[in-house]
Structures are given as C-alpha cells and as structure tokens.
Amino acid sequence: MAVVHELAKAGFGTGTNELYDRARPSYQPGALSHIRNAVQAPPPLNIVEIGSGTGIFTRALLAHPDWSSSIKQYRAIEPSGGMREVFAKSVQDERVSVSEGTFDTTGVENGWADLVVIAQAFHWCPDYDKASAEFARILKPDGIVAFIWNLEDRDGAAWVAQLRNRIEKHEQGTPQFRLGLWRATFSTPSYNKFFSPPEEKRWTYALHGTRDIVTNRALSKSYIAVLPPDEKAQIVQDVGKILEKGDDLKWIDKEKGIFEYPYGTLVVICKRK
Questions:
Q1: Which one, out of 30, 189, 191, 207, has a CA that is 20 to 30 A from the CA of 237?
Q2: Tell me: the pLDDT tens digits for 244-262?
Q3: What's the whole-model pTM score?
C-alpha cells in the first residue's frame, strides 16, 4: 500500500495549493541546464517527475531553452488530488500528463524513462529502498535520477536565519530536506545495486523578495499550513518584525519594498548502472 506522510497530506491538501503555487520560487536556469547536461540519451526524451506538486518545476523545465524542444513525453506523478488539480490548470502542454502515484508506485512501464526528476519532494519519501528500486525499474539503461531542492539560505543574511529559526520550530519532527535524512537512500541495497554514487552541485544566489513574498512563502510550508489561525497570525506578525529589524537586509528598490532574498539550490544526480 502506498504511504504518504500525514503532515504532507494535510499541509498540501485541497485548499492549500493555490498559495503554494503562488508563493514558492521557481528553479534557476543554471540548475536546469546542469540536469540537461547530465542526461546522456539523445532527444526526444521521456521524463517522469514524481511529486510534481502544482507544476512549478514542470513549467520551468518546459520554458527552458535547453529543454523546450528535447521532450517527447512528460509524465507527472503526484499523490495529492489538490495539487494535481492546480497542475492540470497551470501546465498546458500536449506532451504532459499528470496522474496519481507515489515514489515507489508510479504506474510507469519498465524501462520507459530517460530521466526521473524529483523537485522539492524527495525528503517526504517513506521508503528509500523501495523508491530506488522503482526508479531503476522505470529507467532506461544509463538513465538518470535528478533530485533538486530550493531552500532559503540562512548563511546569506542574518534575517533569513532568524526567519528560518522562527518557522522551523513548527516542523513537528517531519523529515524536512534540511535535515538530510534522505541521504540514507544512497546506502540502501537497491540504490547500490542499480545506481552509481551520487554527484552533487550547489548554487547560492539572491531572488527578489518583498514582505508579502516572504510571508506567503512561510505560510506555504506544510507544517505552517496545518497550524490554527491564531498561530499563523502570530507568525505573520513575527515575520514582519524580523523584516523591520532587517539584519543584513539588502535593498534592491526600497521605494517598492524589494530586497534580496538569499537562496540556495542543491541538485543530486544519480546515474543508472
């Protein structure tokens, strides 16, 4: 039986997804080029995206010049009905389909995919060994798995560290990306049987931030989305205080309220043996 983490079910359930889609950042062009360069197969490519959410990564990939004409078919797999609904509205491309599934139950036929990509989702995986076996099953020989995550860079500015300290205390023991629990994947029997050692690359950069962007992004976190209204209101107030204090905050356009929002991206590439 496919298992989805209860907090992920609630935090990304119906009614939370429009905010998620509006608030979360897209993906850096350089990181998308890096994934494209890692794929050894000639185009057109078959792609499976697991945990496709509302389509933020999918839209970025489809719009990227290295990818736009390289895709044959793109199968998005997403367990949340609410997220699939937003995905279907926001991704308009005849090569793309979206269906229900999980990391270890994709419904994709054997040896179909040139690339399996998981954006901002793999830390929710409940069984790394089963997931690795599923990736190996649906990939062609020499296919790759790419994991990608964006995260606010606490080393980029003191106010970002303060922001993360304020919201991360609500994580309730969930397997968040920052904890690195997902790295246990690389010591599972299935991973070591089917894949080469992972290759990692990181980028740091600054996005445009505003008070609304920072606040909505905090509210879009699964562990914040499930909080009662009074606790959410307190978080909004506290985020406002952190920004007003503005430790290390660098303005881009003070009149318009736009400042630098330090971010980081990690890409992990895993090649099928």
A1: 207
A2: 999 999 999 999 999 999 9
A3: 0.93
